[in-house]
Amino acid sequence: MTITTTITLDMITGRSTGHLATLSGNHRLHSDAVTAFQAMQAAAREAGFDLQPASTFRDFQRQQAIWNAKFRGERPVLDADSRPIDISIMSEGELCRAILRWSALPGASRHHWGSDLDIYDPSLLPAEHKLQLEPWEYNVGGYFHPLTTWLSANMKKYGFYRPFENEQGGVAVEPWHLSYYPLANQIQRLLTPTSLLAAWENEEIAGSTWLVKHLDEIFAQYITKVNEVM
Ligand SMILES: [Zn+2]
Fold it and tell me: Which of 1, 49, 141, 143 has the CB geometry, 3.0–4.6 Å to 182, for a possible disulfide?
């Protein structure tokens, strides 16, 4: 499982799409990750699961729109228990940290890489329910728990692991988020505060005054601390 693509700054920060291939519908991943995921999908099917992507590649502009909308109160900001927070009483720094629990900075999302995706099983989702991407759906007692268990036992064979398996730093546990290790591990080592600042040049990033001032600290807590071991 060796990746031969040359990794560029634009690829790390979600500003190029040349390395992507279609997984299904409008879901795209790096071509090697597509091949690996499809092999895992076939094995899951044998085991009775309909393993499907919920979210795959996301570009810089999309992450920027999510970040800015949360910062401006146009999208809810959730606490550790997925309840909306009153952001009107928060300082810039408190708000940035609250958003970082569930959302990455524009340019620093693992969904930029083409290696990472969110998964679910539509056949396990009760008809009247909408997919929430919240931990209770995937944990013991939740309707996707059998899939979580199957993935834990099998995904390693296909090169996938969960970077947000345990709460580390201030990032929430995301049992639905899988990462194709051979690619993600290379990119993770190249993403630095300097490469992120280069991607932010001439871009509107809400809260950037506070963020730039605390970027090394933010990196250490929310980006570097993520589980790197498959
Ligand atoms: Zn995700």
Answer: 1
User: The tokens of 151 are what?
Assistant: 């993935």
On whether the CB atoms of residues 209 and 92 are closer than 8 A, the answer is yes
Q: Which helix (H) or strand (E) holds 182?
A: helix 181-190
**Within 10 A of 167 (CB to CB), how many other CB atoms are there?**
13
Structure tokens at 48: 């009775």
Q: Kindly report the average pLDDT of the chain as a whole number.
A: 93
**pLDDT recorded at residue 173:** 85
Residues with CB under 5 A from ligand 1 (ion): 118, 177
Between the CA of 58 and the centroid of ligand 1 the distance, in Å, is: 10
Q: Which CATH number fits domain 9-223: 1.10.472.10, 3.40.50.300, 3.40.640.10, 3.30.1380.10?
A: 3.30.1380.10
Rounded to the nearest whole angstrom, what is the distance from the C-alpha of residue 162 to the centroid of ligand 1? 10
What does the pLDDT look like over 56-68, one tens digit per residue? 999 999 999 999 9
* pLDDT tens digits along 148-193: 999 999 999 999 999 988 777 777 789 999 999 999 999 988 999 9
Domain boundaries, the chain: 9-223
CA of 217 to the centre of ligand 1 (A): 22
Read off the pTM: 0.91
- CA–CA distance, 85 with 222 (Å, rounded to integer): 20
In 3D, which of 187, 202, 210 has the Cα closest to residue 112?
A: 187
